[in-house]
Specification:
The chain is an alpha+beta fold and about 120 residues long. It is about 40% helix and about 20% strand. It contains 5 helices and 3 strands, in the order H-E-E-E-H-H-H-H. A 3-stranded antiparallel beta sheet has the order 1-2-3.
Length: about 120
């Protein structure tokens, strides 16, 4: 019996949008993981006309942390900044399927995404 859902395994084994975006116009970066220091997520976004046109992420941690970053990056792609800010840890957990309760703190990606959005906004004001 697997401890993790099929979705967790899929995104852990083949994470989406892994990498980093080089700083340029329309760029923001952020970090998340204050709830579980072993699981750190880093997000980079490129924004054009108020929409996220590119998302990259790098994550260090357990399978849930890595899968959560992959899912969050997919969820954020193409969204407006306001829509992307509304992505919650609970929504990511729901997308991943059944998770052990003790692993919910490993979902650092939405926090990192919100930090990247805040960083982007601080540069365009």
């Amino acid at each position: 019996m697997n401890v993790y859902s099929e979705q967790v395994l899929k995104h852990f084994q083949r994470p989406q949008n892994v990498g980093q975006i080089e700083p340029a116009d329309g760029f923001g970066q952020g970090e998340g993981g204050e709830h579980c220091p072993e699981d750190l997520a880093y997000f980079w976004i490129r924004v054009q006309d108020g929409r996220i046109t590119e998302v990259k992420q790098k994550t260090r941690g357990c399978p849930v942390a890595i899968a959560a970053s992959s899912v969050t990056s997919v969820m954020a792609q193409g969204k407006t900044l306001e829509e992307a800010e509304q992505i919650t840890e609970q929504q990511v957990a729901q997308e991943l399927g059944e998770l052990p309760e003790r692993k919910l703190d490993s979902i650092a990606a939405p926090q990192a995404l919100r930090a990247a959005i805040a960083d982007f906004r601080s540069k365009v004001r």
